[in-house]
Every structure is written in C-alpha cells, then in structure tokens.
Amino acid sequence: MKFMLHILGIFCCLCSCALGQNISVRPNVVNIGALFALNSTIGRAAKVAIAAAVNDINNDSSILAGTKLVVQMQDTNCSGFLGIVQVADLVEYYGWKLVTAVFIDDDYGRNGIAALGDELAKRKLKILYKAAIKPGAKKSEMAAVLVKATMMESRVFVLHANVDSGIAVFSLAYNLSMTSGGYVWIATDWLSSYLDSSPRLDMGLMSIMQGVLTLRLSIVAPEALNRKPSSPSNANKKLYTAIWPGETTTRPRGWVFPNNGNDLRIGIPNRVSYRQFVSVDPQTGVVTGFCIDVFVAAMNLLQYPVPYTFVPFGTGRENPSYTELIDKILTNEFDAVVGDIAIVTNRTKVVDFTQPYIGSGLVILTSVKKQSSIGWAFLQPFTIKMWCVTGMFFLIIGTVVWMLEHRVNDDFRGPPVKQAITVFWFSFSTLFFAHREDTRSTLGRFVIIIWLFVVLIIQSSYTASLTSILTVQHLSSPIKGIDSLIASDEPIGFQVGSFAESYLVNELGVSPSRLKSLGTPDQYKEALDLGPKQGGVAAIVDERPYIELFLSEHDKFAIVGSEFTKSGWGFAFPRDSPLAVDLSTAILTLSENGDLQRITDKWLTSGSSASPSDDLDADRLHVHNFAALFIICGLACIVALAIHAGILYRQYTLHVAAASGPLSAAGSSRSHRSSLRSFLSFADHREVEFHKSANKDHAAIAAGGSSSGVSFTSSNSTNTSMSR
Ligand code: GLY
C-alpha cells in the first residue's frame, strides 16, 4: 500500500510538471514511458503498483481534470540485479548453504537483499541472517552490527551497499578480523567490480571476483550473457581456481557453530529397554550406549570443535515417542537428535539425517520351534560325554562279567580272540536284553542284574528324549512373513514409542485394534509365550537391531520372513544443517576404518548370548542325570571283583599248600614272578579242576602218599580243548 501511495505521488508530480507548462491547453492524453526489468522482484511489484496508480488517477477527474494518463511500460529485459543472480550462482557453485547479508537499510539495500533471498531460495539456499546497517550509521554502530553477524553460523557474507558505504563496511570488517581465513565476502554487482579494480583496497579481497564476476562483467559483454538462458548447471561457468582469504585454495566451509557460548543441545531418547543403544544413568546423568559411541567417534573426526550437551528426552518410565523427539528439532528445543532414530520418510521431510550407521529394517519376531537335522537326531538325546561314559560302562561290565564268569562258565572261555569278541558281544547285547550267554556265578549275576537295571533306565530315558526332540521340533508358527501376518486377524506387538506402530497402521493398513504396545524384552517374551489365544500376540514387528539383541538372550523365538523395510538409524539435524553433511562423511570414515564394527562388537555381540543349540541342549541327557546309577553299578562291580579276588586267592593258597605238602619249605625258593604266573595260571583254570585236584589231594594224604602235584599249566591244553 505504501508503495502504491508512493507511486501515486510520483505520478501526480510528473503530471503536474507535464501539465504545468501550459495549463490552458490541456491535452486529452499524457503519455509517460517507464522502463523496468519486469522479471525482477521490484519490476514485478512496480508493474502492479503503477497500473493501480494510473487507474486511480484516471478515475478521479479532480486530479488531472479530464486528461487521461497513459503509462507505457517497457521491459528492459535486463535484470537490475544481475549481480545478485551471480552471487546466488556463486554461493550455489561453492556449496555454501547459508549466507549473511550485510546491507544498508534503505530501499536499495532492502530490495537488493530481498532479490538475493529470492534467488537463493530458487537454489534451495537461504539468507541466515540480515545484518542491516542504518543509513549514515557511525563506525561503532556498524561494528556492533558486524560483531552480531559473526555470532551467527554463516561465514559467507554478501555485501550489498553503495561504493562509499561498502568500502566503509569492508574496511571495518578487515579491522575486526572478519576478512581472514574462513571468511568469504562477496560484494554485489558494481560494488564488486569497483572493489576488484580499486587500488585503495589491499585486504586480501576474495579472489572470487577475479573468477566469475570479473569474467562476466569485464570480458563478456552483458548483452551476450543475457541472451544466454541462465543454466542451473555450473559446468559452463568456467570458474578459475580461487585463492581464498588466508592464501589457501581450499574452499572455506562457509559456516561455523555460533560461538555465543552455548553448546549444541543434543536430544537423546531416555530409554528404559534395550539400553545397550542409549542409556542415561539416572544417578549421574552419564549417557552411554552404542549410538552414543558412534556419535562421539564421528564428532571426534570433525576438523573443528563442536561443543555439545546431551539432553535426555522422556519420562524414564517408558521409551519416549521418537516422533515427538524429532519434533523438538522443529520447535528449536534441540539442535540435533542422536540415538536409535530410524530414517523414515515422514521424518526426512522435516529434518536432515546423517548417513545411516546401522541397518534397521522392520522384521517379524514370533515363537517357533527349531527344525534340526532329522538324519542325526538319534544322536541328540545324549551329550557326547554321555555317549562316551555309557559306551565305556558297557565295556567295563563286559570285562567284569568275563572275569567273574571265566572260571565257571564255558561261554566265557576259549581262545583269546573269541573271548574278546564274547566280552564285546555280551556287553552290547545287554542294551537290548538280548545276551545269549548265561551268567553262572552269583557275583556275575549280581553285577548283571544291576547293570540291566541301569540299561533299562538309560534306554527308556533315551526313548523319551528322542521322542521329545523329534515331535517338538516339527511344530512351527503359522506366521511365515508379513503377508501372512497382515492376512491373519491376530494381535501384533510393537515397541512403545517406535515408528513401527504408525507404519503398520498407515502403510500396511493393519487395524489399530490389533496392535499391542510392548515396552521391554520381558514383555515381548511374555506376549509371545501366551500367544494370541491367551491375550498375547502372534508376532512382534520391530527393527532388526532390537530383535537381534532380544534373540541373543531368548530362545524359542525367531525372525520369520525377510526384512520388509530397508531403513537405517541416523542422527537428525535441522534442515540444511552443514553438520549433518560433515557427520555423514565421518560415519563413512568410521565404517571404512573398522571403528564402526568395533563399536558394534563392543555393544551388540557380547553378553550372555545363548546359541541356537542351547535350546536342544536343554532336552539332552547328560552324564550327571545318571550319575547315581553309574556309581551304583561301578560299586557293584568293585564289590563283586573284590569278593571274587578274595575267593580266588583263598583257593589258590589252599591249592599251593596242598601241592607243596607239609614237608616242603613252600615258597621259600620261589620268586615273586613265578608266584604271579602260577596265580594267573590258577585263575585261568576252571574252578571245577581245582575242586577235582583238591579232592584227589585229600585222598592221597589220607592214603599216606604225597600229592599228585597236578600242574594247571601243563593241563591248560586239556582245558582249552574242553571249552566250547
Ligand atoms: N527406533 C525407533 C524409532 O526410530 O522410531
């Protein structure tokens, strides 16, 4: 409105001048020519305002007394802000996102900066801060404006002022060390060409001007440039390599963190479950976790210091809403959000994310019984140790029974090879109670009866365990993947605060009434164990990192189907934040140098993870399950052998006494070695022969003669031929 009144005033003046020369001869029409760049901000506004003003004048006959005002507007086809366009091109070319505009706060300055804002917006860039200097401001006032501008993030300053003010501002900036390394100053159109050629300025003025600006203004005729359509591509701009302030060819970053003493406020979720990812110590407030370690490692890779403070978000009683956490960036409560934040479409519309540092697609967790290899299932009821101990006991029992039966039972006699086979055959056939050999000795029967009891227990336990393993392993969940989950009508669990809830409802069309929020891994387990029929859930939909952590601590659950979203976790920053870009680079570096893997190993793969075979292990039979039986059996063997040895020794001493007669000095001349051989020979012979020879000796003694002195060794061949 002000602008229109202004235009109206101008026309009134113009018309008064035009008509004032000869008031008596009023022309019917007064023609006024106007030249505007109609393609510019001012041109567009002026066109509308002039048309409205002309209309008002012509409708009010008291102003021009019947004379018609005609304004012929001509488009200059030449932007009055050609320099502004170039500045915007430059900012875009060098990848700066934010600029600070320094200008004299008059119409020229404001219009120029408005035009700059428009041009930058076309390139998705923006003026972060407008440093307006009052016309005629004192040096101290100018300095105050500049110092305030340095508090802001941007280090790209666009100076839009007339020559005198421009030089004053730039000189002051020089004195305030604002033209040194890290700073970029761009002066608009004619000021830049003036500064570029002015011998008065020796302040390391940015070399950009020797690049694009000079090229366009000095070498190529403006008309030639204007004929060319403006191209968003920078390929045809033929920029020279710039020497930047600080005598460096490295492009200034163009921004810093506002050094007004405030740390970055980094929001973090105050988690109550899966605290390996992010956790806040309620006592000390110390923040730890996988996501925190990744963030800190990435920040340490930045070339510049960024002070920050973690600010927990959430009640600490349940996991916070991650959507609300992200919204805190929009309301400026947080400068960034760090944690297990999924990069999902809705969020990328409002904030910028870094590169993902871990994959976090949604998966389905459900209760399933593991299928194992049926071919070798028969081995699974016993542990390896149990198999070994059982096998060993079979051999021990075979040997003990052989020792006990050898002297009295022809089944356990014969050539050594045959006897060895008998031991094996006898012992292992007891497994099926199918041994053919009789046990004749009392001790042998005692051992065998205990052993057969042990075998009975082992056998029935084996059968029960194998039955359990084979039947239970065949059961599995009816949920096979996301399609069968959606198609079913059963309740689905999701993690409190996670985007999974809205994803299931909005993207997959799952009825909210089917969803059940679960806060902790214990609640996951309980809901799955109960199952849909008893108030639990059929499956849980959650991000893979949580589920993997859950599975590392819980058996009898598994991921079914494939990951059905392909998201990851990243750190969230406000739109266009340069820190998001630099941290993305840092995350890639962490990934390439292996640090990311090391942090992952530290937080996510240690702990009491149960291997899949542990579930099966619980059903297996161990040696300790049968320890009592083995001990009883072992003791029975020892007792039987001891008694057998006692009897044998007694028989042997009787036999030796009878053989040597009362007059001989028995044993005095015998060596221990031959005694042992004689004992073994005695033990090898059938007991019946001992009784026969004993009877004979008694008869001979009764008849007054000497003993027969039967040698068991010499009669061994007879025994052998007698045995079966
Ligand atoms: N990780 C939970 C979420 O981003 O919603």
Describe the structure.
With 724 residues, the protein is of the alpha/beta class. Among the domains are: 2-75; 79-222, Response regulator (Rossmann fold, 3-Layer(aba) Sandwich), CATH 3.40.50.2300; 262-360 and 567-606, Periplasmic binding protein-like II (D-Maltodextrin-Binding Protein, domain 2, 3-Layer(aba) Sandwich); 641-721, no CATH class. 48% of the residues lie in helices and 14% in strands. It has 27 helices and 19 strands. Strands 7, 10, 11, 12, 13 and 19 form a six-stranded mixed β-sheet that branches. A five-stranded mixed β-sheet has the order 16-15-17-14-18, covered by helices on one side. A four-stranded parallel β-sheet has the order 4-3-5-6, with helices on both faces. β5, α7 and β6 form a beta-alpha-beta unit. α11 packs antiparallel against α22 (595-604), α14 packs across α15 and α16 (442-473) runs antiparallel to α24. The protein is elongated and about 180 Å long. It starts with a helix and ends with a helix. The structure holds glycine. Glycine binds at residues 322, 340-342, 498-499, 543. Belongs to the glutamate-gated ion channel (TC 1.A.10.1) family. It is a multi-pass membrane protein. One of its GO terms (cellular component) is membrane. GO terms for molecular function: ligand-gated monoatomic ion channel activity. It holds the Pfam family ANF_receptor.
